[in-house]
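Record type: monomer structure entry
Structure origin: computed from sequence
Chain ID: A
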Amino acid sequence: MNDLYQRSIEIILKNQSPSGGYIASPNFPTYHYCWFRDGSFIAYAMDLAGEHESAHRFHQWVAERVNERKDLVHASIIKVHSGEKLTEAEILHTRYRLDGTDGEPGNWPNFQLDGFGTWLWALNEHRKLNPATELSQELLSAAELVADYLSELWMLPCYDCWEEFPDNVHPHTLAAIYGGLHAHTELTGKSHQAVTDTIQKQLLADAKASGHFVKFPNSPAVDASLVGLAIPYSVIALDDPIMLKTIEQIESTILHENGLHRYSKDTYYGGGAWVLLTAWLGWYYIELAKKCPDLNDGLQQKIQACKTWVEAHSQAGFALPEQVAENLNVSSYYSTWVERWGDIASPLLWSHAKYIILYLKSSVP
């Protein structure tokens, strides 16, 4: 068994709190929280690795956070439906302390909708990977609240998955909401087709001008998170010409020496390549190879390149960092962030989760 794969499982389990939440990074104080987005991918990786109890504890943790804020969710839905704007105090946060409490008010961009869609997707995957397990009413109630929240708020500008650009509606966020609402339909039978159809049409319309998906409307650049439109959220087919063109743009502009960057103007720690994104791109190649056997030879080389790059950047104790300080977009920003927050987060549990997914998916014929 691969040492990095086994160590990745151990690092995740070690850093799951008794309450069920996964700390984003134990050695990086700014990340001493659990994000719905990160945690959902981590839980999915744990399910794939057979660590179902760990995944279940995370989902229970999320359900507790949502259900104890049900009055806030209902109030926000009513307010948005009436055309009013939400204040910071009226939104459902996307990250919490491990004990379930909110972080300090006003010190973090909390209005992020993609994490909620990702959680619904991961919860449905948990159900499918554990067919003998019946989801509790607590989980289903939380899922209903989240689905209602997304159905009403999906069109609002919010922070993207990198917690930036709050004045835009982001394709990755829309895709995560699409995938989450489809998952909720599978879980409960409740239809969200009017919303999901509208989301899909909007995404395709926004991509028409350039022939590929972009970071956000009126921006010609691509973002690595656009891989999510195909895998895992399935708002667009893996082999759709627009998706293939998007991947070509990603490869030609933000993939450097097999390491995938977030976007071309990223300056966070200088804008290096991210471990989890490189693994995510490898996951896309794996699924595309399954669907399009005629492309298999070339894709296998790309899959191996992603896997080799990730494995080559594990650190002491097989810790995987968030990103690496190589091929930086703007090298002068590296020291700026080190002075502000310390060295790059390592281990990052989301990186380990994406490696687990890549490792296991690439091991299945």
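Annotation 1: The chain has a mean pLDDT of 96.
Annotation 2: DSSP finds 13 helices and six strands in the chain.
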